[in-house]
Amino acid sequence: MDVAIADLYFCDMTLPMAPVTTMRRRGPGHWPEAVDFTYAFSAEGHDLPLRLSLLESGIFILDRDRHFEHPTPDFDRVFMFAEGWCRVTIAGAVRRLRPGTIYLLPAELSFSVDYRAGSRLYYHHVRLLDALGLPVFSRARDLCALTHDGFLADLVTPYGDDSPVGVARWQSALFASVMRMAEPFLADLVDAATRAHPFAELMAYVRSERRATLSVRELARRYHASPGALSKRFSRAIGRPLKDHLIDELIQHARRLLGHGDQSVKQIAAELGYADTFYFNRIFRRRTGHTPTTYRALSRSR
Q: Checking CA distances to 124, which of 15, 81, 159, 267 falls within 20 to 30 Å?
């Protein structure tokens, strides 16, 4: 697809940030939960509603060889090496990653990584969702990579320049590099936007409510339809039952809080409207394959 670098790079995409005081910034306290925006692929004539979350940025410095396992993370890892290298294994295939390239490891893709002592890398944890609320890069079956000297230079400025101009430049570079790597999925993104359009208001309401007590019956009353008819229309267009969508929205938010927040499992369950923490644990494990406590430990490994 033909999108000018200038159109990507100098986008109006500025998010508030806290001053740099440590080697690692963790959301959601430092940034908004997410930014809704419409991305215009002018060459194709499509305006695509997308949703971007910046979860964490930091510098990872290895004083010794390290190995980590990452089963189905719920966010995309964007990172670049300043020094050193690592080996990433995805579905048995091994890749060696070095300086000079921006890498993205997609959400929902299991992988393991072996870092070498002396390595130093800059990382950004992000989540880019399509109009259906699904991770854009879950369509990728492998590592995504991008080589662009301008992007590389600006993506490390959070740790050297906290001025408004510096912040704007690194955020624009991050946004531009992520969108460039999303280009192969344009046709899928257009399809998702087309299918989601009739339910955009409903899905925004579900996202804003995020409570376990929200039911298909309540939504049907709100949108003047019978529960059966609403569920059938939603399932036909979106590809999953409305009831499942309500649960998935809660679990995805729980995953984010577990991975990048400081609340206890009990507090997260209560925030989502689950009066019974044990029931929340059971639902979470059924959807993710892990208990909330195990998921938190796995998601916070580097």
A: 267
The answer to whether the Cα torsion of 6, 82, 104, 200 is positive or negative is negative
Q: Are 104 and 78 in contact (CB under 8 A)?
A: yes
Give the tokens for residue 294: 């195990």
HSE-CB at 126 with a 13 A cutoff on CA atoms is: 23
Burial class (CB in 10 A: 0-12, 13-18, 19+), 229: exposed
Tokens 């912040």: give the residue: 167
The mean pLDDT of 27-42, rounded to a whole number, is: 49
Per-residue confidence band for 165, with pLDDT thresholds at 50, 70 and 90: confident
261 residue type, one letter:
G
Total-model pTM: 0.79
What is the per-residue pLDDT for 39? 64
What gap in Å lies between CA 22 and CA 167, rounded to an integer? 16
Residue 214 has a CB neighbour count (10 Å cut-off) of 17
pLDDT of 239: 92
Widest Cα–Cα separation across the chain: 61
Long-range contacts at 146-152 (CB < 8 A, ≥ 24 apart)? 146/101, 146/102, 146/104, 146/177, 146/180, 146/181, 147/100, 147/101, 147/102, 148/5, 148/102, 148/177, 148/180, 150/9, 151/9, 151/102, 151/176, 151/177, 152/80, 152/100, 152/102
Does the pLDDT value for residue 256 go beyond 50?
Answer: yes
Among residues 51, 57, 50, 52, the alpha carbon closest in space to that of 30 is found at 57
